[in-house]
Amino acid sequence: MAKSRSIRNKVSKKDYEVRVPELREQLIHLQVQLKNAPFPVLLVVAGVESTGKGDAINTINGWLDPRGVEVFAFHPPTDEESARPYMWRYWRCLPPRGRLGIYTGSWYTEALREASAKNADPAKFKHALQRIEHFESLLVADGALIVKCWLHLSQEAQHKKLTKLESNSRTAWRVTAQDWEAHQNYDQHETLGKTLRKATNRTGASWTLIDSENERGRNVAITETLLEAFAHHHKQHRAPPPAGRPTEITPLRPEGITKLEALPLDKNISASEYVKKRDRWLGELNQLVRQAAKKERSIVFVFEGWDAAGKGGAIRRLTNAIEARNCRVIPVAKPTDEEKAHHYLWRFWRHLPQAGRVTIYDRSWYGRVLVERIEGFAREEEWRRAYEELNDFEHQLSENGVIVLKFWLHISKEEQLRRFQHRMETEYKRHKINDEDWRNREQWSEYETSVGDMLILTNKSYAPWYLVPAEDKRYARLQVLKLACRRIAAALQKG
Fold first, then answer.
1. What's the pLDDT tens digit per position in 113-155?
2. Which of 275, 439, 481, 491 is 20 to 30 A away from residue 128, measured at CA?
3. What is the number of structural domains in the chain?
4. Is residue 249 part of a domain?
5. What span, in angstroms and rounded, lies between the C-alpha atoms of 306 and 297?
6. Is the distance from CB of 53 to CB of 100 less than 8 angstroms?
7. pLDDT digits (tens, 9 = 90+) for 368-396
8. Are 289 and 436 contained in the same domain?
9. Quick check: helix, strand or coil at residue 297?
10. Residue ranges in the chain whose pLDDT is less than 70
11. Which contacts (CB < 8 Å, 24+ apart) does range 309-312 have?
12. Distance between CA 391 and CA 407 in Å, rounded?
């Protein structure tokens, strides 16, 4: 755990005029260096009401080159934001590597607002801080620099500032009833602030307590804190060498391969029986999706499986039962340059459905522990920690009422070869196969090992894996429908 520090910095007007040009020059130099850095910088300016957060951010933002910085302000959640998991709106507003994001009204503001309300639940505040600490730990582990400044103002100084602003007709509009209410509850807010800082102070995201009574000193202290943190971080975080393909893929949990090998692949169903049962389960799925929508429960389907295992066909059958306006299919391919410039989970948080809607992922975030592990796109420390990161991601979805269904479609190596050859021989299917599919096939055992580890290490009660024998396509599609219905029905019944 990092140590927080406190700064009380009174700066005269004369000294300020001398120091500002120097600080501006250093900030621009920071931005030039940051352009080629393998990490983003997040500057969080927080504190209780009337400490000058907005003024400070406006000042520092004016000293920066606007082309390399973005300011994010968060107000009480909109309907769109409330309809998604709590951290969704914060994940969407992360700067890419090489850029600076400045935050006022950050993820801390909403937690403080809820905690200071009448009859607030302390356990809920504690949970919110744990969620924030985990969010920041993911970013720090990925290399991000998070600089957090807490602006402090004594109760006496706060009263003096509010009175002065209110006495001037040109500034009276800046004082609200909420400001005076916060002043009256000063001790409560101070206690909450101390609890917050203690719970979320960590290496790479430590707090600096800055006295805000002297506005010039406040601006200088924030800027110098940012510059100092960046200089240290930049020295420690040079661009890492490419991960490189591992020489060997060894199982973390050998029982995962055993589980795959034990799956009976001889399951099949006749065409006539399939049609009869399919229509029944499609009808039931349609009703369950409607019930989930009425209860504002969103549903996330995750499809993983071998190349040519039938993911696309299974997805098409699912969408037959869901109204198109309420369903979205996300095909996951290689990340774009924009996506690679962010934490790998960023692109998946962006596409989460709002309450009552359905999103189907054709391949998913599990690429981190499959293709990225095998091909060396992720370093070992990255894919190893990803299991827990993925579990937590899905747990956050579940906490928000999202019903998560994960399917692994399993076929034999011989069946895959037969389907590959069929695709090569069928003109309208030829686009579905490429050189990469053949190359992946040569690494069957490596994928089998990685899949086994994935199935064991990310199989949780809130997001279990369903292993589906897919040698017979009709049987696999029917199983997906049946399992989906049972999982959704159980989740709705549980509440």
1. 999 988 999 999 999 999 999 999 999 999 999 999 999 999 9
2. 491
3. 2
4. no
5. 30
6. no
7. 999 999 999 999 999 999 999 999 999 99
8. yes
9. coil
10. 1-4
11. 309/409, 309/410, 309/411, 309/416, 309/470, 309/476, 310/409, 310/411, 310/470, 310/473, 310/476, 310/477, 311/362, 311/363, 311/409, 312/362
12. 15
Do the beta carbons of residue 83 and residue 326 sit within 8 Å? no
- SS3 category, 301: strand
d(CA 481, CA 144) in angstroms, rounded, equals 41
Selection from 349, 489, 480 nearest residue 406 by Cα: 480
The reply to whether 225 and 284 lie within a common domain is: no
Dihedral in degrees, nearest 10, Cα atoms 233, 234, 235, 237:
80
Q: Give residue 401's pLDDT.
A: 96
**460 contacts: CB under 8 Å, gap ≥ 6:** 391, 394, 395
Q: Is the pTM of this model over 0.90?
A: yes
Identify whether the C-beta of residue 46 lies closer than 8 Å to the C-beta of residue 150: yes
The CA-based angle 480-486-491, given to 5 degrees, is 125
**Other CB atoms within 10 Å distance of the CB of residue 141:** 14
Q: Residue 189 is encoded by which pair of tokens?
A: 């807010």
| Cα→Cα distances 413→47, 180, 364, Å | 59, 70, 22
- Going through 31-125 in order, the beta strands assigned E by DSSP cover 41-47, 69-73, 100-104
